[in-house]
Design goal:
Helices cover about 60% and strands about 0% of the residues. The chain is mainly alpha-helical. Its main location: membrane.
Amino acid sequence: SVLIAVRNPQTIPTDGQNFFEYILEFIRDLSKTQIGEEYGPWVPFIGTMFLFIFVSNWSGALLPWKIIELPHGELAAPTNDINTTVALALL
């Protein structure tokens, strides 16, 4: 879906291009204020971490996991598990 939104960038951006440019600019500015002028190589890593945590937390909040009854709770938000939290902290 990202490739569809920005595969042909326009001078006057479309809705999808606007959204992805906004997200990229937010992550780039966040990296620049926290790291300094050498932020360039860190933008993909920080962006990936930010989007993973954001989507994981929202999937836990928006999807009704309790409606789907599975024996071992296979469907849960990734950040609900302590192992995910520890792995992200170690990175």
